[in-house]
Design brief:
Layout (H helix, E strand, L loop, with lengths): L6 H5 L8 H17 L7 H9 L1 H9 L1 H30 L3 E2 L2 E3 H11 L3 H8 L2 E3 L11 H14 L4 H5 L7 H16 L6 H16 L3 H26 L7 H13 L4 H15 L18 E3 L6 E3 L14 E2 L6 E2 L20 H15 L2 H14 L4 H35 L1
Parallel strand pairs: 2-3
Antiparallel strand pairs: 1-2, 4-5, 6-7
Helix pairs in contact: 2-3, 2-4, 5-6, 8-11, 10-11, 12-13, 13-14, 15-16, 15-17, 16-17
Length: 422
């Protein structure tokens, strides 16, 4: 029996089934299925082999002693398969579980991949669902998403935010404004290359995906669901020759960071992938430091090592953490997103606000208040509540108020003069 496939497994029968009627029905159902597949380009060989085993199946499963042995062997096989499925589930889930919690969209993707009820997955992983309300948000239609990705590939951009060159946290109004600017730039181009045509198609997609907050959430959910697919595709590509080079490994970790996946979780996922594929794991991106220095944090300004509990650098005095402007959580510089699972603000985009602030100041000096206001609104999407944004807004307000009072004063003077003449 060890030299062949188990008959219960081949027939898809539960090992508890022992009656002749159910067994014979399963054999006849499979006979018809295999007969249909006999000329199938992929399933034909296996179908012919199974058809040749039918007589032995009937003989073996009609004998009570042999049938019991076959059923016991099937139980062990199914248990081993179940353990392997659970192992793969835990490996896949490691990248979306944080602090014992899993986002609803991550749970949905696991349920789809492993064809398993969500409740069973939660029980196996021993986690709870975070942001359960996210399940109400439907991801962008797959056919639309595919067209967008094709156009993005042509222009060499990762997603619509990358195409517009603006943060995910930007408002729909700002995103649509940027889309219109891209349209104006490309519509004037008489040379309709593939890149220009793709850009115009992406502008149209932006107007659909960012028409309101609900549409934007659908697009963002579609992006988050692509994390599994993207990482596996990258790993399959770089590991095609049975090894992942150090350079390719660093690129994958960076790509994960760009998608909001912390480096430690990304590294664990890659190493589990290597174990699964039986290939040598790459070296970690950073060599482990001595035990007495394992908790040190390097200053982003001068490079001086500091204790993890330090708030400012002991060498230059620079702060060792930054405050998320959206939720107020303290995060280490260098992260792409806020580590608060309910926030996810792109802290790596915050420096863009400084450039926009400088431009706004220059426009104020030129007296171009409308342009300055526009730049300040865009800067605020990258760093809300920035003190310099508030300062310039107040300055702009005071200037506009002064102009209003000057105009009113002039009108009052005209009225008084008119009354005196009369």
């Amino acid at each position: 029996m060890s030299d062949r496939d188990n008959y219960y497994i081949i027939l898809g029968l539960d090992p508890s089934v022992k009656d002749d009627a159910s067994i014979n029905k399963a054999i006849e159902d499979k006979r018809r299925e295999w007969s249909r597949d006999i000329n199938h380009p992929e399933n034909g060989i296996l179908a012919r082999r199974n058809l040749q085993k039918i007589n032995d199946m009937q003989k073996t499963l009609s004998d009570p002693g042999q049938r019991d042995m076959e059923a016991e062997a099937a139980k062990k096989i199914l248990q081993a398969q179940k353990r392997e499925t659970h192992r793969k589930l835990r490996e896949a889930a490691s990248i979306v579980i944080e602090d014992g919690k899993i986002q609803e969209h991550g749970l949905s993707e696991l349920a789809k991949r492993f064809k398993m009820p969500k409740a069973e997955i939660l029980k196996i992983l021993k986690v709870t669902v975070e942001n359960g309300g996210d399940d109400r948000i439907q991801p962008l239609d797959a056919s639309i998403a595919k067209k967008i990705q094709t156009a993005l590939d042509i222009v060499g951009k990762r997603d619509l935010f990358d195409f517009l060159g603006i943060a995910q946290t930007s408002s729909c109004a700002v995103l649509l404004k940027k889309a219109n600017e891209v349209y104006e730039r490309n519509s004037r181009n008489v040379n309709k290359t593939a890149e220009v045509s793709a850009a115009l198609e992406l502008v149209s997609a932006c107007k659909t995906c960012f028409k309101d907050d609900d549409a934007k959430k659908s697009y963002l959910k579609m992006l988050s669901l692509k994390v599994f697919e993207d990482i596996d595709d990258m790993l399959n590509l770089v590991a095609a020759r049975g090894i992942i080079s150090g350079q390719a490994y660093k690129k994958i970790i960076k790509a994960c960071a760009d998608r909001g996946i912390p480096a430690d979780r990304a590294e664990s996922y890659v190493h589990e992938y290597c174990k699964r594929k039986n290939i040598p794991p790459p070296d970690k991106t950073e060599k482990p430091r001595p035990a007495d220095k394992s908790d040190q944090v390097q200053c982003r300004d001068c490079g001086h090592p500091n204790a993890s509990a330090a708030k400012v650098c002991g060498n230059c005095g620079s702060p060792l953490t930054i405050e998320c402007p959206k939720c107020g959580k303290k995060v280490r510089p260098g992260l792409s997103e806020c580590t608060n699972p309910n926030c996810g603000f792109r802290v790596c985009d915050m420096p863009k606000a400084i450039t926009l602030l400088r431009k706004a100041e220059n426009e104020l000096k030129k007296g171009n208040d409308a342009k300055a206001k526009e730049l300040l609104e865009e800067a605020e999407t990258y760093n809300p509540n920035h003190i310099d944004i508030k300062r310039l807004r107040d300055e702009l307000h005071e200037r506009n108020s002064g102009v209003v009072w000057t105009v009113l004063g002039s009108l009052l003077g005209v009225i008084v003069l008119f009354k005196c003449i009369c």
